[in-house]
Amino acid sequence: MKIRAAILTTVGAQAPYSQSRPLAIATVDLEPPGREEVLVRIAAAGLCHSDLSVMNGDRPRPVPMVLGHEAAGVVEAVGEGVHDLEPGDHVILVFVPSCGHCMPCAEGRPALCEPGARANTAGTLLAGRRRLSLDGRPLHHHLGCSAFAEAAVVSRRSIVKIDKDLPLQDAALFGCGVLTGVGAVVNTAGVQAGSVVAVVGLGGVGLSSVMGAAACGARQVIAIDLSAQKLKLAAALGATDCLDAADADLVEKVIRLTRGGADYAIEMAGSVKAFDLAYRITRRGGTTVTAGLPAPTAAWNLSPAHLVGEERTIKGSYIGSCVPARDLPRYIELHKRGKLPVEALKNDPIPLERINEGFDWLRDGKVVRQVVTMA
Predict the structure, then answer these.
(1) Structural domain includes residue 101
(2) Residue 241: domain span
(3) Same structural domain for residues 79 and 220?
(4) Pairing assessment for the beta strands 196-200 and 220-225 based on DSSP bridges
């Protein structure tokens, strides 16, 4: 079938992207779903820094590639071997397919699936196939999803079925922003009720962490960012204290405010400087979690004596250490009960044709979660 899609043709293009246009909107060929694959009509897709990091070269991926990994849509057809989905089902795309057989999957850690990671790096679906092409030349898949398109063929293990009463524009944000941000709080950090949580970086993922910390019953939720607008939104989503990241006395202020530091400090800005800040505002015996993804060449200096002497814990978090089939229904139920007001993260939707402009807004920090609609 023929579909419109946003193809990344140039890595490292100069901003503004509305002028350099690294994403080209073109009509491409999409093959039917093969065995254990599903054809999904994409309704909405969120613009995420993980897409931006491929565009600017921080996350090396093969090109040409159809980007997009945070999305929701409607099943249009299923391939051989798919018996638990049917046309008309609503689904959320998950950007790491889980084989169910490797050691991480066997341990209940599908976010670390080894075949899934290899397929994502190679730009293929889980089974190693490519279903997209342009003028007879194959196109790579982004994280098994390639959701900046009118439709996508994905592995059955890259989607989770959801109830039809959740608006698909809201549902799209659960696939990355909410899953990662809330999961980092609930799964990776294991935040306990009555504890103190600090969140550094208030994009869609960081604000989801703020919501998650509030939902977990943290007595203090400290939100830190450079943007006054995002700090205001964090307060509306449950932050008890909102601090300017540019404040020269920020570390001392947090230590005084928390009487020793945060029990859990969560870094979501994707920079070494932000991670260093998160570490320094963590209390003795506390836990620092990062889900930020700076460039692979970035490095951070750590004193082992400090780590040992204060019994610190540092954890990385990928997809919020989630089991998507378990956690997505839970987070959606919390959303329905008003505990995770995900709709507050959305900016006004834009059409696919304006996607380069949308990434300018994301890069400049002017939006929280920009959603592209395909209708």
Answers:
(1) yes
(2) 180-319
(3) no
(4) parallel
What are the tens digits of pLDDT across the range 247-263?
999 999 999 999 999 99
Q: Are 154 and 246 in the same domain?
A: no
Q: Is there a domain that residue 171 lies in? A: no
Phi-psi label, residue 174: left if phi above 0, alpha if psi -120 to 50, beta otherwise: alpha
For 278-292, letters b (16+ CB in 10 Å) and e give bbebbbeebbbbbbb
Q: Residue 331: inside a domain, yes or no?
A: no
Residues 143 and 190 in one domain: no
Measured CA to CA, the distance from residue 200 to residue 313 in angstroms comes to 17
Within 8 A by CB and 6+ apart from 193, the residues are: 216, 217, 218
Mean pLDDT of 260-288: 97
User: Do 362 and 311 reside in the same domain of the chain?
Assistant: no
Pick left, alpha or beta for residue 97 (phi over 0 → left; psi -120 to 50 → alpha; otherwise beta): beta
104-128 pLDDT, tens digit each? 999 999 999 999 999 999 999 999 9
